Amino acid sequence: MRERDRDDEGRARSARPRDGLGRPLPYGAPGVERQPEGVVRTPAETVAQAQRLLDGGMPFHAHEVFEDAWKSGPAAQAPLWRGLAQLAVGLTHAARGNAVGGARLLRRGAQALASPEASPYGIDAAGIDVPGLVRWARELADRVEGGAVVDAAREAPSLCGGGRGLE
What we know:
Elements: H1 43-55, H2 59-72, H3 78-95, H4 99-114, H5 119-124, H6 130-145, H7 152-155
C-alpha cells in the first residue's frame, strides 16, 4: 500500500503526474508539468500565463494560475479570479465529458463574473473581456447541455477579447 504523498509542510499533495485536463496518470507515466503553487503574478502575467495554458488545451492548469491570483492578490480582486477559475474548471469538466459538472461550473463562473464585485476590476485593470467571457461561458454551457463534444483547445476563450471560442 502506497503512503499518501505529502508536501514539505506535511499536507497531502498528490505527486501523480496529470494529463492536460488534470486527470491523474499512473505513477511514473509522463504527464504535463503542473503549475507551481503560490506564485504571485501581476494581473497581466496571470492573464498571459492562463491564456497560454487555455490555448494549449490545458484549462485545469489555467485554473491553478487563476487560483494563485485569487489567493495571493488583494481581496477586492478575488471575485474576478475565482470566477475565471470556475470557467477554467467548467471547461475542464466539459472536455472530460462531464456535461452536468461542466455546464454547472461554466454558469457559476459566468454568474460570478457578471457580479458587480468582479466586473469593474476585470474591465478596468486587467484588460479582461468580462462581458465576452460571460457570453462565451453561457453559450458553451448551453451547447454542453445539448450534448456537444468539447475540445478544450478549440473551445478556449480569449480572455481579452478577439472573438475566439465558439467558432
